[in-house]
Write a structure and sequence with these properties.
CATH superfamily of the largest domain: P-loop containing nucleotide triphosphate hydrolases
Strand content: 5-15%
Helix content: 40-55%
Largest sheet: 7 strands, mixed
Number of helices: 18
Number of strands: 9
CATH topology of the largest domain: Rossmann fold
Bound molecules: adenosine-5'-triphosphate, magnesium ion
Number of domains: 3
CATH architecture of the largest domain: 3-Layer(aba) Sandwich
Radius of gyration: 22 Å
């Protein structure tokens, strides 16, 4: 009964993608049904339309919690309050680092910034060859070759904006860059900085950059930059505008030297990012992170299956059948196939490996998620293609006959 309700809501959302209330409702239902991942997608899509919608924030918090991502749940909870029953949320993985002017205040300021040393490297990222090459020439090669850098007078700083459909590896790629360098990696989601209630966002942002400067060389990753650096004209509150101005000042190094701090930013909505953020010296290069091609899909699928019991899976075939699937979709597909194998083991009382049949069944259940993004992106690309900034995107849409 619930499932048909969810299906009807899915259809309604598809017909009216910007209907926040509908998405929030669907997200709550999906959490109850155990599909937290899909619930989170809907909650985030709702937030993309209405970033400060309380119900959507709460839905995102609950979905993140249910999908086993306590750090993300905590970040949303900070904006909207904790879920009941309140969870103290110990994330375990990243090590929190105290800031310099750590004050004993209840709002834990710089402590929010989590530092990690990722162990994934660029070799773990399937496909995206062009993106990797750009990263290499902009940052990795100069870092590895200090003599050449001095010879060409190239400074070791820079900024790069990654954009593209959800789940295609922007965050993964940023972590891999840090892993590649053995460098520290500071990941900041909008929620770490935008402190709507307390108005201390600028201080936090400054603390964050200071922390990164002390740790140079390092990668400072600003995720969901559209929320953080929205077009200043769109921001209703002057507080929000101050945050953008603060970010511009930090990127310019007006307050301190940014040598050795490489700023990577990511967004699903590049058209909402303040153009001032994209000027030379700031996030001056923009790279489109596309869904994986067939070879990359094979690599991602093989990677996801690597540590599981598999028997006779045809990865190459599956890669051919999954055009339009994001990396995250593929990982999810393998997850679903594993569940089927697990259920079968429970049913039969003997251990069953994952087979092509399980994968085929999962393929029918997991749809590709990138099309919806391209439908929206295409409009912006057609009507706001200043300076040819969306040429790559248009070429991809045309080539894959997405519209
Ligand atoms: N190219 C890839 N190679 C290997 N794994 C990938 C790749 N792309 C995505 N994945 C897998 O999908 C997961 C989700 O990707 P990621 O979080 O980087 O997406 P994203 O582009 O940042 O999405 P969003 O826009 O929603 O933040 C990764 O943790 C990884 O497991
Ligand atoms: Mg991401």
């Amino acid at each position: 009964m619930d499932e048909s309700v969810a299906a009807a809501l899915e259809a309604a959302v598809a017909a009216d993608p910007s209907n926040t209330a509908l998405r929030v409702h669907l997200a709550a239902l999906l959490v109850l049904q155990g599909d937290a991942r899909r619930a989170l997608e809907h909650a985030q899509a709702a937030l993309a339309v209405a970033p400060d919608d309380i119900a959507a924030l709460a839905a995102a918090r609950d979905a993140a919690q249910a999908s086993g991502d306590p750090a993300k749940a905590r970040a949303y909870a900070r904006l909207v309050g904790p879920a009941e029953p309140a969870s103290p949320a110990v994330s375990g993985r990243p090590v929190p680092v105290g800031g310099d002017d750590s004050d004993p205040d209840a709002h834990d300021g710089e402590d929010e910034v989590e530092v990690e040393r990722p162990c994934v490297t660029l070799a773990d990222v399937g496909g995206l060859e062009e993106v990797k090459a750009r990263l290499d020439s902009a940052f990795l090669a100069p870092l590895r070759n200090p003599e050449l850098r001095r010879y060409y007078g190239k400074s070791l700083r820079g900024g790069l904006l990654l954009f593209g459909p959800p789940g295609c590896g922007k965050t993964f790629l940023a972590r891999a860059v840090a892993g590649e360098l053995g460098a520290q990696f500071f990941a900041v989601g909008l929620n770490d900085v935008l402190d709507m209630w307390l108005g201390e966002s600028e201080r936090r942002l400054h603390g964050l950059f200071e922390q990164a400067r002390r740790a140079a060389p390092c990668v400072l990753f600003l995720d969901e930059i559209d929320a953080l650096g929205q077009k200043r004209a769109q921001l209703r509150h002057s507080a929000g505008r101050n945050v953008v101005n603060q970010l511009l000042a930090e990127l310019d190094g007006a307050l301190a030297d940014n040598e050795g701090v490489f700023v990577l930013a990511a967004t699903n909505h590049p058209w909402d990012v303040d153009t001032a953020l994209r000027r030379p010296g700031r996030l001056d290069r923009t790279l489109l992170v596309l869904p994986p091609d067939q070879a990359a899909r094979a690599a991602i699928l093989a990677g996801a299956l690597a540590e599981r019991p598999v028997d006779g899976a045809d990865v190459a075939k599956l890669a051919r059948q999954t055009d339009g699937y994001s990396g995250a979709d593929l990982v999810h597909l393998v997850e679903v196939a594993s569940e089927h194998a697990l259920q079968e083991s429970v049913r039969t009382g003997e251990l069953r490996p994952i087979t092509q049949a399980h994968l085929g069944k999962a393929l029918k259940e997991v749809p590709p998620s990138t099309r919806a993004w391209f439908a929206v992106a295409h409009n912006y690309a057609v009507y706001a293609n200043e300076g040819g900034q969306y040429d790559d995107l248009l070429a991809y849409v045309r080539q894959h006959k997405l519209l």
